[in-house]
Amino acid sequence: MAQAGRRPGQTETREEILEAARRRFAEQGYDGATVRGIAADAGVNAALLHHFFGTKQRLFAASMNLPVDPGEMVPRILEGPEDEIGERLVRAFLGLWQAEEGRAPFLAMIRSATTNEQVATMMRQFLERAVLARVAEARGVPKVRVAGIAAQMVGFALLRYVIGLPPLVAASEDEVVAMLAPVAQYYLTDGVHRPDTPRG
Question: What's the mean pLDDT when you consider all of the chain?
Fold first, then answer.
């Protein structure tokens, strides 16, 4: 006899739980989402959810299955004409948010980071290790410059996708690029000496 709450196809059930968790975390943040609510959305009982993940914190970590591998994204931003690097960076960032399924993990992280120190720490570590350090090293700029770009873009995402500030919600991709790309371009190129470029 099957265990109570367990349905055939554990792989499928696990994925359904993760999908329900992503939706709940994106809509309600880490603190607002409950194990019971996620289990109900997935059509299972809370005991099965605990069986798969143990705690809500572990479920959150598992549900943050980001839509891109930063290790693949960073080289694509850095490669190409130097005078277009700011635009490539901003367009890549916007691309992560265009599709609903790609947006949900990032919304969950932003909302949860404002209310939960553990999530904020996870987000800081992700930005530091996967993005800031790699871009700063590749461009030969201080990490504070890349952090400044991240602050601008995360702030934009917060105002557009979480708070829903009307002018930003209505702005087209090209309008957003026109606003953000020049700043990113400045931080990544102004006064930077490339190792393969002779000094004047």
Answer: 83
